[in-house]
Amino acid sequence: MHLSLIEPLRALFKDEVRKVGRELGIDEIFIGRHPFPGPGLGIRILGAVSEEKVIMLQEADAIYIQHLRDSGMYRQVWQAGAILLPVQSVGVMGDERTYEYTCALRAVTSVDGMTADWAHLPYDLLARISNDIINRVRGINRVVYDISSKPPATIEWE
What we know:
Elements: H1 14-23, H2 28-31, H3 51-71, E1 79-93, E2 96-109, E3 117-118, H4 123-136, E4 140-145
Parallel strand pairs: 2-4
Antiparallel strand pairs: 1-2, 2-3
Helix pairs in contact: 3-4
């Protein structure tokens, strides 16, 4: 069997795909969705990937994105995501010390994804997101916000 893969749209960038989607009449809820890393959330876990880390990242990312949606900031951001770092630090939960992971939050604004600036999210929103992640995601006791632009950084960490 001799088959060929034909991908006429694979050379398009994210902004161009959105234009095609609008021309086709696809609902804006799909058009405006943030780009998702092709390899999946595994590239947002720096270091060794485990089931436990995937669950932590899924929960942290869901909290983050929901806060962006609830605050009305989701549509102002080109792409956002949580990254689980291979860094553990001491924290205090209740009356006990913890030694848990750090979660980095990344949000950027862009026109085409080729260059991007970090999204200037309101401090009170970042505080709510951080508190929710720390209080609801077992295994994370610290949240940081990435304020790097592209270039020199990229949107994803891996």
